[in-house]
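Entry 14. Structure prediction run on the chain below.
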Amino acid sequence: MLLKEILATSATRIALSIAVGFLIGALFIFFASEGTWALLSRGDILGGLASGLSAIGEGYAALLRGAVFNSDASNVAVGLRPLTETVRFAGPLIAAGLGISLGFRVGLFNIGGTGQILFGILWATIISTRLEMPFGVHVLVAVIAAIMGASLYGALVGFLKARTGAHEVILTIMLNYVAIYLFTWFIRNPNLLQDPTAGGTPKAEAPAVTAQLPVLIPGYQVHAGLFLIIGAIFAYWWLMERSAIGFRFRMVGQNPHAARTAGINVENTYIWAMASSAALVGVAAAHQGLGIRTGFTYSIHAGIGFDAITVALLGGGNAIGIAFAGLLFGAFKAGGPQMQVIGVSPEVLSIVQASIVLFIAAPPLIRAMFRLPSVQESPALDRLRAKVWRKGGDR
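Output returned:
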């Protein structure tokens, strides 16, 4: 009974999806190994199998060295650098993943993370390069500008959806391009944000020293943006699980018609939900735009807006789940180059990510593969349902 209840949980399905994703990646490493094919072509089946398995082990060992701990390093401090890189890469993925997940829970598909990040970075760059303020005040104002800039960009989507009925998917896709070209125009113009040392390359100036997020540990690249991410995790949890507006968000996401009947203004909820979703993405913008020490191009968004969709799906709408999902994908980003050094194609990790998303997005598929009981088959849920019906009958 207990085992059946455990197997019916979404956590089990997510864990199996991740395991299957790594298994599929292992198959690609196996068949992409030149040594494996060379031995198999000579008829040495056992040698080919051994070579392929060795390639898999070396590939995933390289991933661990690049993402968790480098056992080949000269000292422990250097060996721990991969872990700090994983945390640094994971930060904006977690914040943006929280924002995308908030939209999902309100029934909105926010795929405009790229545009919202760039719009937030645009405002943060204006504040951090064109205004002079004391340290502490300057970085705080720049962070607020990034969050508010992204939030207003998201609120525009919610407003258009609420007032015109336009679909948020189309709106966010188009606004991604608007943000990219607007940001490029700003950093291409010498009178606006272009770095005067960039020559003909569209490049923004680096944030002023007083506006940069300070490094937490000398010798590493982890900066104070980590605290922004921790704050975003708590804010998301409190908003969605403990606040009245979060309750309205969830009600609209479950059934907008019933929410409207209950007196909830669904249109205004869409505006506030998109603004809140984009505000969390704006935390990722602050992490990216103010954690850098050099000039940057529009590619500073680093595909975070789209990767965040995967993080949100893997996290299942739960703040802690999204944090772990962000760390996993941050590990992929940090460890990918180390895998490439030993000859494993970095596209393997993309295959692993895509496979995980496939199985997460198709619960019946993973249940059929492992013969997992569905949620409705959970004895605990059956008992809870029976208890509710009994109370209803008593009344």
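Residues 88-337 form a domain with the ABC transporter involved in vitamin B12 uptake, BtuC fold (CATH 1.10.3470).
Filed with the rest of this week's runs.
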